[in-house]
Structures are given as structure tokens and as C-alpha cells.
Design a protein that fits this description.
296 residues; single chain; alpha+beta; seven-stranded mixed beta sheet
Length: 296
């Protein structure tokens, strides 16, 4: 399997070309989370066939981000967890954060934070939105991408600021308040085209108002389902997270998205898969969904 995740900062990251749109696949860091929590009702003898686990039962997860260049705009989709130093020493130990962040991977390809026009966040959990803020020289949290508008579902924002979550620490004030204070939020409700070829659509289940991102150009479409299906090991319909706020809805909506992708020939981008990012979808002889890692 060709590895396209957890590469670290590199000046030669994988790239996709979708018509006139170029997407650069960037390593926004990585973390390790409890395997039992990541697979909910699925017992370890089953999920451990699909992914490794360390001595503390944690599994590795990428935090892949996507730099999209289209129609004169530079768009960053997802931001990872951000600087390791944003987290207490105990959290750093629990999550085994990488030493690098999305800013390091952008710098490796010559992109500065102030070159980003838009940031699209699928949802506001810390491992997706944490890289959206940084710490300035005075120790204050500020937007990491000072010129950018941050695109978020209105319902997701409302749930985040009210702490509507299973994990009480996943919506973190330091990732939210600086964006509101700086006036950089751009709220959407439901399906919306953000720029030509880049649209968002609701993918509820993991959170009530999570959004997936659809990239289309030429004759090719790639869908980022976010935590509706974070890794290839979550392909099975009941393989959902204990972190999911709406587990039944997650299962139903995952099946619906997979059916649509298969019918339309769309590829999947799985942002937290620890090995690969891009996948082709098919069915096996028994009618079960099947994924195969694809070359960008």
C-alpha cells in the first residue's frame, strides 16, 4: 500500500489534479486515540485485525489537511490539532501528538499562513480545528491564518460554544473564542458551494452538524466524509466511534454516502487513515463495500 499519510513536513507532498483545481495533501500532525473508543461496539478481536494498537490500546491516526488552489483562491481544509505546546503535558502524553503541525507542512512547500484565503473545518473537535489558532508573542491565542475566513456550519458552531459533546474537552475555548473575537467566521447552513468545485454538505452522526467536503473538477470527484468514516478500518457499517453523538445516524448516513460514491464513481479521501488518504470504492462478490488505496 502506498503511504500518503503521516509523511511529516515535506517539499514533495502528494498532489491531486481535478481539472483546473490542484489539491496538495499535507500532514497536519498525528495522534493516538483509544482503540475501544474509536470502534464503539466492535470488540478488539475484530477491530485489531484492521489497525495496530500500542501497549495502552491506542491506535494511530493521521490529521491530514488539504490545500486547495482553485479560481485564484488558496483554501485549507482541516487544520489538525495545532501546536503540541497548546496542550498540557498530560494531554501530550495521552494523545502522543506529533512534534509538527500544519503550519510546518505548509512552510515546507513555501506557503505562509497569511497566504490562506479560506479555512474549511468539517467540525470543531480539537483534532480538526486546533490548528486554526496559534499563540502570539504575548501568549494570547489568535487565528493561525490571519487573512482567512473560517467556514463552519452554523449548527456546529452553536453546539461547540454550548459544549454539546460526548467528550467534554473536545470543543476547546482556545480554538473557538479567538475566531469569534477576530470576526473571521463565515457560517453556512446545509449544503453550500464555497468556491467553484469546492462544496460542503451535512454529514451528521459524529456530531449533529458535521460537514463533509466535495471536490470536483474535470471528470473527477473526491469526497472527504470527515469523521462519518475517519479511516478505512471504519468501512463496515457498524464500525463507528463511541465518540459519535448520533451513532445510528452515523451508520445510516455512511451507508448512504458510500452508495452515492459507488454509483457516481467518486473517490474517498479519509483524513485520519494512518497509511493512505485516497481510496477507490467497490463491492466484493458478496455485495460488501471494499476500499483500495489509490494513487493521487
Amino acid at each position: 500500500m502506498s503511504r500518503t499519510a503521516r509523511l511529516g513536513p515535506t517539499n514533495e507532498p502528494p498532489r491531486l489534479q481535478l481539472g483546473d483545481m490542484r489539491i496538495t495533501i499535507l500532514d497536519g500532525g498525528h495522534l493516538w486515540l483509544d482503540g475501544g473508543a474509536m470502534f464503539g461496539i466492535i470488540p478488539k478481536p475484530l477491530w485489531s485485525r484492521l489497525t495496530e494498537a500500542d501497549e495502552q490500546n491506542r491506535i494511530p491516526l493521521a490529521m491530514t489537511c488539504f490545500l486547495v488552489e482553485t479560481d485564484g483562491k488558496t483554501i485549507l481544509v482541516e487544520t489538525g490539532s495545532g501546536l503540541r505546546s497548546k496542550y498540557h503535558e498530560k494531554e501530550q502524553d495521552i494523545f502522543r501528538f506529533a512534534d509538527h503541525s500544519i503550519v510546518d507542512s505548509l512552510a515546507a512547500i513555501g506557503i505562509e499562513p497569511d497566504q490562506i484565503d479560506l479555512v474549511i473545518l468539517t467540525h470543531l473537535h480539537f483534532d480538526h480545528a486546533g490548528g486554526g489558532t496559534t499563540v502570539d508573542t504575548k501568549g494570547a491565542f489568535t487565528p493561525a491564518f490571519p487573512r482567512a475566513k473560517y467556514v463552519v456550519q452554523q449548527g456546529e458552531w452553536d453546539d461547540a460554544v454550548s459544549g454539546h459533546a460526548v467528550m467534554t474537552a473536545t470543543y476547546r475555548t482556545e480554538n473557538l473564542a479567538p475566531l469569534e473575537a477576530a470576526g473571521v467566521l463565515s457560517m453556512v447552513k446545509g449544503t453550500a458551494e464555497i468556491e467553484p468545485g469546492v462544496s460542503v454538505r451535512p454529514t451528521p452522526g459524529h456530531t449533529r452538524h458535521q460537514q463533509g467536503v466535495v471536490f470536483s473538477g474535470g471528470e473527477r470527484t473526491v469526497v472527504l466524509p470527515a469523521d462519518l468514516m475517519p479511516t478505512s478500518a471504519h468501512l463496515g457499517l457498524p464500525y463507528n466511534m463511541a465518540y459519535d453523538l448520533l451513532p445510528f445516524e452515523n451508520m445510516v448516513n455512511k451507508e448512504g454516502l458510500l452508495d452515492e460514491c459507488l454509483a457516481k464513481g467518486w473517490q474517498l479521501a479519509l483524513g485520519q487513515d494512518p497509511q493512505s488518504v485516497l481510496f477507490d470504492l467497490s463491492r466484493d462478490e458478496k455485495g460488501r463495500f471494499r476500499l483500495e488505496a489509490a494513487q493521487p
